[in-house]
Specification:
about 500 residues; alpha/beta; Udp-n-acetylmuramoylalanyl-d-glutamate--2,6- Diaminopimelate Ligase, Chain: A, domain 1; UDP-N-acetylmuramoyl-L-alanine:D-glutamate ligase; Protein-Tyrosine Phosphatase, Chain A; 3 domains; 11-stranded mixed β-sheet; 6-stranded mixed β-sheet; 24 strands; about 25% strand
Amino acid sequence: MILSKILEDVEYKLIKGSTDVNVENLIYDSRKAAPGSCFIAIRGAVSDAHKYLNDVSEKGAAVLVVEYIPDDFDLDRCNSTIIQTDNNRSALAFMSAAWFSHPAKSLKTIGITGTKGKTTTTYMVKSILENSGIKTGLIGTIETIIGDEHIPSVNTTPESYIVQEYFRRMVDEGIECVVMEVSSQALKLNRVDGFTFDFGIFTNLEPDHIGPNEHENFEDYLYCKSLLFSKCKQGIFNADDNHFEEILKNHTCNVETYGMSEGCDYRAEKLELKRDGNALGISYHLSGLMDMDVMIDIPGKFSVYNSLTAISICRHFGVSEENILSALKNIHVRGRLQTVNVSDHFSVMVDYAHNAMSLNSLLSTLKDYNPPRLVCLFGCGGNRSRDRRFEMGEISSKLADLTIVTSDNPRFERPEDILNDIVTGVKKADGEYITIIDRREAIYYALDHALEGDVIVVAGKGHEDYQEIEGKKYHMDDAEIIMDWYNDHKSK
């Protein structure tokens, strides 16, 4: 593809050479440089790719896209065309869209942002749309789904080049719509530049991802979340969230709202918790732009919000009430309040809750069902904040009747030290507890000692299928271990 075509939507300055050159491939990893490459130098949190410009040029790259010329760069010896932009991350997004022939124009694009609920909601939307015959792709925390292919995810929202590549593959597969999680980091780092979302969704906002390599403060986190609503045509917002008005501040989209308060376009009322054997769910009546009774086989008030999001999106696609209700009754999201059916006498769930906020929300939700006993099994990751361990230990001890403290991803720390920190928090409340370092052994203990009516939640790792120890990842899947226990006992 000719460089001028790739740059058609990019503001740039030509430093050297010509835009009338042919580009063989678009890259942002200097190790992939080859004759004919167009290399976009990205400044990351850890490394600045501008320091590799001499190497990339010597490998025969046709084009270098830079934000500045480093002092050690030999401009005279360089035979590459050099393009300068103010923001190479944004340039990469727009160039990638052009490289893949703007596939988003052939898709209905749905972007969902918020602190919680993104993953479950994307699966709800995909399920409802596909239930009504609309082929739908998905990009999210757990995986990317393109037709029958499931690609494990590294980031919640991939780099812009990968986003556009996935879009292109979806279009080529005959997919009509894509629903994707849009993280605050993705918005901050321009990963979803280069196209306009048809729908942008706001689920909720709570302090999270605040730190030196993410957002310097809550204000920056909120601002980055709000950027989605200047990048979409139709916005759909949780009006019950405390930060709703702030998120709306700079929007350029049409606005619809959902929630439980008066005046919402989609309003849930008459909520009722449901427990059928070992299955927990919730029902409610939906009023406003739609009028129907809804039942979901996922517990908790936040499941109502997730379903409202999905319903409000799908109304724009003309999906029938029958298809919506049928799909919602069969939603199963790996590692997100995932019920693993191993007994008629107690409930077992796997969830990704891995910080104090999410664990508090999870256990409070399950406690609302008044189980005879609530059992929480979890650990904390190594080489992460110690405060998280104390906080999670205290929350579990306050809300669960029994806390089973075990190992998560110890990384380069001693598991014993992590467990001791968690127990320090546990002892601040009065819940019973036990420590079992081996995670498989801990899960077996919880199941072996389950009582009638127990609700057991295995928290922290969710969809992860590994345990990271001293730089290596070993296969470990909580739901798989639970099924191993079931198969061991079934055969006895």
